[in-house]
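Minimal example, chain plus cytidine-5'-triphosphate.
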Amino acid sequence: MDLKNKHLVLGLTGGIACYKAAELCRLLVKQGATVQVVMTAAAERFITPVTMQALSGRTVYSSQWDAREPNNMPHINLGREADAIVIAPCSADFMARLVQGQSDELLSLMCLARPIERVPLLLAPAMNREMWAHPATQRNMAQLQRDGTTILGVGSGEQACGETGDGRMLEPAELVHDLIAFFQPKLLAGQHVLVTAGPTYEAIDPVRGITNRSSGKMGFAVARAAQEAGAQVTLVAGPVALPTPRGVTRIDVRSARQMFDATLAQATQATIFIATAAVADWRPVAEAEHKIKKDGSGAAPQLAFTENPDILATVAQSPRARSGELLCVGFAAESQDLLAHAQAKLERKGVPLIVGNIGPAAFGQDDNALLLVSADGARELPRASKLELARALVQTCAQMLRRPS
Ligand code: CTP
């Protein structure tokens, strides 16, 4: 329910992507928003107000002469109530009309009449690729951004007209994500956050290996929360099947040594490093070239192990981390004595913050409970979704940046 207590005006303009607006409306309501739909006459050619009324639970407005409003001013009342106006789909024509301040029908009139400082306007353009690439549309988009409008971007791929390229409306789930992110405070604007996530896989032979039960969910939630907070985010992920959070750059790795190399290369740019990965502590000394076969004697193969490099400790020792240019945060997955182990790790890894959690209660779950341990003491974050906890961690990092120890 990330949009709880948010009231949105969802504006529809003419375009085949109107069929996606039905799903968008449903998802917004599911996230706790109240949605007031406003449609242009062209939008009503593509989808009926009946559908949008049923999904939003509110009658749809489409005329500036709608007499249901006691003062007969829906263009004033509807905009004033909203936390944001979202136009999805937004046609090329509607963008052009917004640029010019045209206002001869309800939706454009309401956009013009909205209090600019208080009611943000977000557009999800949808059009043929040639229309999108046309200098007129690109010029209009630049002007709209200068006027304080947020353009949510477009998708790429097959279009209803049969052509392939940029200009499709973003998928409803992507738009909902972007809207949720829009409302998050931009605590990490200008920061570059580097996150490691998931398990690593240490090969024994071409078909077998050693790994662990980390699902990567906490690290992916941290990456998402940092992106929502306005940071540029790079996620170095071990082998997990999770979708990449929107707007996050992902580097897939398999072994601890690959994660080490990728992370150290990225750490030169980062301002915050959050090590959530459950890195395998040991790897087989050598990976067998071919599958190890049973030899019929009943004897198990003898595997020798060697220790993997410690990614967090290495980054924490780098000159940028030591000078305070790079804030390093470690995780501790324990099965008991969380506080004592986390405090010991704080010292051993040389980092200002360790985030403790009970591994068996966290791995694979959608929620977790955390213990933030620093030199100042320990603070509990009670059980909540991993995304909520990640947002709280982002807040803590932002505070630590403002008040370096
Ligand atoms: N970590 C790392 N590289 C490693 C091992 C751990 O970057 N080779 C990071 C983890 O991502 C985590 C923190 O170090 O942020 C703590 O990892 P953990 O495995 O819990 O600690 P260990 O140092 O392995 O200590 P122990 O095995 O005693 O629990």
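The domain at 7-183 is CATH 3.40.50.1950 (Rossmann fold). The first strand starts at residue 7 and ends at 12.
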